[in-house]
Design goal:
About 40% of the residues lie in helices and about 20% in strands. It is an alpha/beta fold. Strand 5, helix 6 and strand 6 form a beta-alpha-beta unit. The structure holds pyridoxal-5'-phosphate (PLP).
């Protein structure tokens, strides 16, 4: 695992170089979904501190079993009835895909008297199998989400299509970045657009070249699920 991690860190460094970006402007999230706790602990031992999970129950269980300095990212589709179990436990919820989900996160955050940082998930490749707002829906909804109490919109997230050649996804990453720039220019209260969560094992280099601030890598670190 240490070897795999080194290779990825080197690839990240090279992509940052090509894009003229500082290496530390990209956060590597180790996607530990389906991996047993002792495997996740190995990633912790080689230095990982940011982990991503796509199921509430799995996130909560691993959080209880692993050191408390880990930052947990919720990256999977989130049902409203599960929100109460993870609010207050995540660094960032990447997968907000509806106004009603945002309302629920707001409500539960108010109960805990805290603020939750969220990203809006954008399905800009318009794949019918994936969750997320279309670009039009983002524009229609963002102001309604931004006014909700106790949440902050930190940016956007996308899951690009599975492709053999990552160059095919460059257009989607570039489009997400442009959307984030356009939203930022509107200066909406509670909307910073400082985070662009895009890029997975198969396409993170291109995502970084196009401005990703957070890459979510599972297979590349842990091997096949
Ligand atoms: C599983 C998953 C990843 C990681 O995928 P890999 O191809 O294994 O790197 C990233 N983001 C999301 C939302 C995921 O569900």
């Amino acid at each position: 695992m240490e070897e795999r991690l080194k290779i990825i860190q080197e690839q990240i460094r090279q992509a940052c170089d090509r894009a003229g970006r500082a290496y530390d402007c990209v956060t590597l999230i180790a996607v530990s979904k389906t991996m047993p706790t002792q495997i996740v602990a190995q990633a912790y031992e080689v230095g990982m501190r940011q982990f991503g999970e796509n199921k509430v129950q799995e996130l909560v269980k691993k959080q209880e079993e692993l050191p408390s300095d880990i930052k947990w990212h919720m990256i999977g589709h989130l049902q409203r009835n599960k929100v109460k179990y993870i609010v207050g436990k995540t660094e960032l919820i990447h997968s907000v895909d509806s106004l009603r989900l945002a309302q629920e996160i707001s409500k539960e955050s108010q109960k805990l008297n805290m603020t939750s940082d969220i990203l809006l998930e954008v399905n800009n490749a318009m794949e019918s199998t994936k969750y997320g707002f279309s670009v039009d829906e983002v524009w229609q909804t963002i102001s309604d989400i931004a006014v909700l109490p106790n949440i902050r919109i930190k940016g956007l997230m996308t899951i690009a299509p599975y492709v053999e050649n990552q160059e095919e996804n460059r257009k989607y990453f570039a489009e997400l970045r442009q959307l984030s720039v356009d939203i930022k220019a509107k200066n909406i209260d509670n909307v910073t657009m400082s985070v662009l969560s895009m890029g997975m094992t198969n396409d993170y280099s291109v995502a970084i070249e196009e401005g990703a601030t957070h890459v979510r890598i599972g297979t590349g670190i842990f091997g096949n699920r």
